[in-house]
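Researcher: I'm comparing several assemblies side by side, and this is the next one on my list. It has 379 residues spread over two chains. Same procedure as the others: predict the full complex and return the structure.
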Amino acid sequence: MSNPEFETALKELIYKIADDELIIGHRNSEWTGLGPMLEEDIAFSSIAQDKVGQAYNLYQLLNQLGEKDPDQIAFNRNEKDFKCCHLVEYPIGEYDFSLVRHFLFDYAEMQRFEMLANSSYQPLANFAKKFKGEIKYHVFHAHIWITQLGNASGISHTRIQSALNEVYPLVLSIFEPSPYEDVLKSENIFAGEELLKKNWLNAIEPVIEKAGLVLPTVKDETAHFGGRKGYHTEYLGPMLAEMTEVFREDAGAEW
Amino acid sequence: MHIISLDPRVSRLDLLDEGSEVTVPQQEGWHTYEVFHQKKTGTQHTHVGIVHAPNPEMALVFAKESFARRGPTSNIWVVKSADVTATSYDDADIFETTPEKLYREASAYKLREKIEKYKLDTHE
């Protein structure tokens, strides 16, 4: 831990993964009680809760690296300090939007975790192994829904395809390169966003095909970049205000 | 009169009040699945309830959420309820026994619990 650039790079990596998990977890939890049917409501809520749990574990790693405690990181930071990508900030929309986001995001998470399982930074490798089963289940859930709705008739197929057209350009915001790609690669901490994107495409393409869907073409893949540098959509601020409302009532409270 | 239900899947079927027969398109009607839960590898799967799902894979997801979240789980089975063949309750008398044949009933075996426990332990 003597090299300061190494530590900065590592923290930046953990912050962005954790912030993605926290924000998508909070967003998806907005479906609790409103899901399309009872069992799916429970499943989607349970997955959302897993995401917040994963964020908590990563904030603990940051705490061990000298950052504030997990509650402070989650509830007491400025919007600008969040490193989440634009994809996770968008409102839940209709269920088709949320499902397609869950599908594309969780396939990327699974690939990221697989890469992190080989990280030279042992706590990150341990994290990836600890949550391997959870992310496998999230992907299983997403895969079933997308193939079911994609292959169904009429309105169902049309809505999933149009949600895919809408979400796909946003998903590319996940892969905004870090300013520390080189050091992350040379220190074998993480093999980089470009490889992640490649692995992700290899993983989703067969599913898209099986579901009878078509990936849209995107003119500017960088159009939704900025989240990793603290530039967010108009949706993050109001969401953070709501998420931190109880915390801010009494910031020093013991739970 | 078409039947309008709170469940959109029912409304979409265009059911008539007269109760005439309708053909449900593939993937439109959901099925009931019986859920069997196994706590530990090697032990028996136990029937724990039902879920409603459009296909077996989604039935597994719903079964996990409904029956496998609050305790240890090693495995889950789902079986379409329609695939279960059952005796009729009208024929329940086939299980009755005459007083002279009470010796057949396993409750007479004092060692039964010990035997069951032994079987379970040797599976572990």
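Model: For your comparison table: Chain B is about 25% helix and 20% strand.
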